[in-house]
């Protein structure tokens, strides 16, 4: 016999999961309190990195059913939701989403829905890449320096080389110029090449 679990999540401490719990009960799902996992954590945290969701994963077994009110309770974006549902389906867990009419996302109709979600996820990813490339191109055309700011100026880099050639240690030079040893070693290596 299938066990029914529910997962309810809110992002901040001034929000409450009671509405989600009530919505699940109103949809006709009887979830024992021990199988109702609620947590307060940002949606920006991937599902598999949330303490409450990890606790849920440890309880779930094949043929169990997981109820959520909305897809965004499972993940931070379409790609994360898709990965989470696929991982649960791989465990043999059926996932029902009330916002999608209670459809089981692991059923044929649910798989079609997940196909649409996957297409949206790919579209989101492609848009993000395009926006990033456009932003980098614009910044470059405006003459902006891309990447991390340099730790030391050209003059300071010359000073690093002078100090090293006079026998000072990497640690001493780093301390005097208030930078990291890695920066000093990187300058030494770059000038040696």
What is the 3D shape?
elongated
Residue share in helix: 40-55%
SSE-based structural type:
alpha/beta
Ends apart, CA distance between termini: 68 Å
Give me the side-by-side strand order of the main sheet.
2-1-3-4-5
N-to-C order of helices and strands: EHEHEHEEHHHH
**Secondary structure tally: strands:** 5
Major sheet description:
5 strands, mixed
Helical element count?
Answer: 7
Which fold does the CATH topology of the largest domain refer to?
Rossmann fold
Do you know the CATH architecture of the largest domain? 3-Layer(aba) Sandwich
Mean pLDDT: 89
Model regions low in confidence, pLDDT < 50 over at least 5 residues: none
Number of domains: 2
Radius of gyration over alpha carbons?
26 Å
Fraction of residues in β-strands: 5-15%
What does this structure look like?
- The protein is of the alpha/beta class.
- The chain folds into 2 domains: 4-118, Rossmann fold; 154-192.
- 50% of the residues lie in helices and 11% in strands.
- The chain contains 7 helices and 5 strands, in the order βαβαβαββαααα.
- The protein has helices spanning 18-26, 51-59, 78-90, 108-141, 154-165, 170-176, 181-192, and strands at residues 4-10, 36-40, 65-68, 94-97, 103-104.
- A 5-stranded mixed beta sheet has the order 2-1-3-4-5, with helices on both faces.
- The longest helix has 34 residues, at 108-141.
- The termini are far apart.
């Amino acid at each position: 016999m299938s066990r029914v679990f529910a997962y309810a999540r809110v992002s901040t401490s001034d929000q409450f999961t009671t509405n989600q719990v009530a919505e699940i009960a109103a949809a006709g799902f009887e979830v024992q309190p021990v199988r109702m996992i609620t947590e307060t954590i940002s949606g920006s945290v991937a599902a598999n990195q949330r303490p409450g969701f990890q606790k849920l994963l440890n309880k779930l077994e094949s043929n169990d059913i997981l109820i959520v009110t909305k897809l965004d309770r499972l993940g931070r974006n379409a790609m994360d939701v898709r990965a989470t549902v696929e991982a649960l389906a791989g465990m043999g867990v059926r996932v029902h989403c009330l916002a999608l009419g209670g459809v089981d996302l692991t059923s044929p109709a649910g798989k079609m829905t997940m196909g649409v979600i996957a297409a949206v996820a790919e579209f989101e990813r492609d848009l993000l890449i395009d926006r990033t490339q456009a932003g980098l191109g614009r910044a470059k055309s405006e003459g902006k320096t891309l990447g991390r700011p340099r730790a030391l100026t050209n003059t300071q880099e010359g000073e690093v080389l002078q100090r090293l050639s006079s026998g000072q240690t990497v640690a001493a030079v780093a301390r005097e110029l208030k930078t990291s040893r890695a920066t000093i070693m990187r300058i030494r290596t770059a000038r040696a090449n």
